[in-house]
Design goal:
By secondary structure, the chain is of the alpha/beta class. It is built from 12 helices and 10 strands. The protein is globular, with a radius of gyration of 21 Å. It binds alpha-D-glucopyranuronic acid. Alpha-D-glucopyranuronic acid (GCU) binds near residues 270, 312 and 360. Alpha-D-glucopyranuronic acid binds near residues 22, 294 and 360.
Length: about 425
Amino acid sequence: MRTRVFKLFFCLLPLLLSLKPMEMEAQPKGYLYDEEKVLSYDLPDLLLGLDGKRIRTAEDWATKRRPEILRLFEKEVFGRSPKKPNPLRFEVVEEASQALKGKAKRKQILIHLEKGKKSLALNLLLYLPVRTKVPVSCFLTLNFLGNHTVHSDPAIRIPTSWVRDGNGAKNNQATDEGRGSRSSRWAIEAILDRGYAFATMYYGDIDPDFHDGFENGVHGLHSSSETNMRQSDDWASIAGWAWGLSRGLDYLETDSQIDGKRVALMGHSRLGKTSLWAGALDQRFALVISNNSGCGGAAISRRRFGETVKRINTSFPHWFCENFKKYNDKENECPVDQHMLIALSAPRPVYVASAQDDKWADPKGEFLSALEAEPVYQLFGHKFGVVKQPPVDQPVHGRIGYHVRTGKHDVTPYDWEQFVNFADKHLK
Ligand code: GCU
């Protein structure tokens, strides 16, 4: 008996060692994971204007209801962001015509932001396929641990901004050890093979992911010491990262090898919440993808399945604006829910991706948001194409795309294959 327990322990050891804190937290205790126990709720009416009039045309949506909903998300959820900065300067700091074994051209760009005497620089890494006619469509993404973690390419610059320890980072500084440590999430070669460029930025360059009193990153850049009193609808970190994505697009629009009108945004998890908000604010993004974005992203908050508004505001007090905390345990009082966030992408193609075992992110709630957003797409003559959640690993690619894949909270080559298929359908 004892030897059997021992054997089992040694068999499981590699698995136990591979679990990182974030993954171990994947399904915290004390939250709802049972569909039968979801209480009934009423969603705010997507197509009922604040003046009580029903929205019946695409034009009324675009000119009346969309701006109303956008303002509600700014005021109650993400906070208001500043405008495009001026001056904005781009510096190509590294370039190679032969990268990734000849498959790609590589460019590394510094996006210089200035405000009075303060300045900040964001690193953008860009791979362009060599065997495609320019200008090309491009996926723009944010990464969690530094551009150098998306591929083992030794030429990728290492961030100097704050990085969470682990994966080669020590004392909140990235090191060479982290090179390629997250490459499994980024199917870069496959994306290039399909004729797309791939661009990524490190989210910590834009704003560090801890509660720093909004002193660093883009918040620090914009605050002035005399007026450092924060308002309850001032932008927080997700809005900061989203703003940074728009600066990435500002650069891509100036690059003659990129088609600035065909840039697709993709984000995972907290960065999936971010891509939905970035796509809502900045309609220059041609296509928006959220992967496993969960609470505050694609999942309906009123379901209270998995992560709740209170829990997210408590664990990550810097992600949303102060006003969002009013809805801790009071989701039903919030004037918006997440189907409205998906609808803000309309009529552009939008993709919601879930993972079956990612209960914390509420796969069903993510699907329901996409479904509930469809009436807005219908105003533009577009369809989703399903009325109930498709089985696992059976993607649906209407103007709204959706899949729930087998497996856990992650980004996999399977996810990327679906995103590229979806982009082929809508961007080419
Ligand atoms: C935590 C958090 C989620 C978030 C995720 C991530 O699990 O609760 O809201 O999406 O981290 O970004 O990895």
